[in-house]
Automatic annotation (TrEMBL):
Taxonomic lineage: Eukaryota, Viridiplantae, Streptophyta, Embryophyta, Tracheophyta
The name this protein goes by in its record: Ripening-related protein 5
Pfam families: KWL1 (PF24300)
Major subcellular site: secreted
Residues annotated as signal peptide: 1-19
PANTHER family per record: RIPENING-RELATED PROTEIN 2-RELATED, RIPENING-RELATED PROTEIN 5-RELATED
Annotated source species: Urochloa decumbens
Gene Ontology CC terms: extracellular region
Domain of life: Eukaryota
Amino acid sequence: MATARAVAALAIFLMVALSASHMASSLCPGADGLGVCRASGYLPGQSGNCEKRPGLLRGRFEKGKDGGGPSECDNAYHSDEEKVVALSTGWFSNMARCGHQIKISANGNSVYAKVVDECDSVHGCDDEHNFEPPCDNNIVDASPAVWNALGLDQSLGMVDITWSEEEPKMATARAAASMTMFLVAALSASRMASSLRLGAGGLGVCRASGYLPGRSGNCEKSNDPDCCEDGKEYPQYRCSPPVTASTKAVLTLNSFEKGKDGGGPSECDNAYHSDEEKVVALSTGWFSNMARCGHRIKISANGNSVYAKVVDECDSVHGCDDEHNFEPPCDNNIVDASPAVWDALGLDQSVGMVDITWSEE
C-alpha cells in the first residue's frame, strides 16, 4: 500500500501544482459532486451607516472608507495608491494567503497585488463590515491602484478577471515551497495544518492575528458572560492549538436558545437548540470553516465523560456586536457547551469555566 499511496499523493500534488486556477482551494463538495460550493446559510440583513461604493470588486482600504476596519493580515489600513486586495473567505483560506502577491489579468493587462484582507463571505450587515452583505464566493476586492493599473473604469464597480499566484521572479522558489508544504501535510497524522499557523516560537504556536476594539451594547447576561467594554482591545485568533487524542481546552457555559446569550442561531444548522440538548460551539480554529459541523466529540472532566454535537462556532475573530451578544471574541481553546453538557459532567454551572479535554472519538 505504501507505494500506491505515494503514487496517488504525487498525482494529486501534480494536479494542484499544474492547475491554472484556484478551484480546489475555494470550492467545497456538494450534492452534485466535487467542485460545487453551496451557501452554508443565510444572514438576515441589518441596515446601518453604509459608506457607499459602486460595486463588489472595487474596495477602499483607507481608514474611514468602505473597507470597514483595518486589514486582517496586518491590522493596518492601506492607501488607495497601494496595489492591495481582499479575497473571498474560501480563497483567503484562514489567512494562508496573507502577504502573497497574486497576478490579476483583465482588459488585456496584468498587475501584481498583495493580499492584505478577507472579503468576508460569512459575516456582514454590521459596522465592522460597513453594513454590507457577505461577499460572494468568487471575489477579488481590489484597491483603486489595481483598477488603474489594469486600465479599468472604476465606475463600473465589477469586472470579470482571472488571477493566479504566480509571483514575479519567484515561481521556482514558490513551487519548491509548495512541494515542501504538500509533503508535510500528506505525511502528517494530525490536523495541525488546518488549525495552526507558524509563529515566532515555531510550529504549533497560535498567536493573535489582531485586536478588536471593544464596543459595549445590550449584552444578555443569563450565563454571566464577559461583556465588551468600550475602548478595551480584545485579541483575535484564526487558529487553535493542535487537536490530539486528548486535546486540552476550557469549557464555558452557553445557552443556544433563542434570546439567550448565544446570540443568533447556530451556524451549522441555522437553528436554535434547547438547554436540554448536549451541544457545543468550538473556537474558530477547531471549528475549521464548518468542517466539524455535526461531529460528536467526547468531553472529559471531573472524572466523567459525555458526547456532544458540534452545532456552532465560538467566534475567535468577531465580537462586540449584536450578533455576538456584545461579547468579545472567544479565546482559541474554547468548547462552549450547553447546560445539558455541564449537568452530564456533574459540573457546577456557577463556576462558568472549567479545564477539560476533548477528542473526536
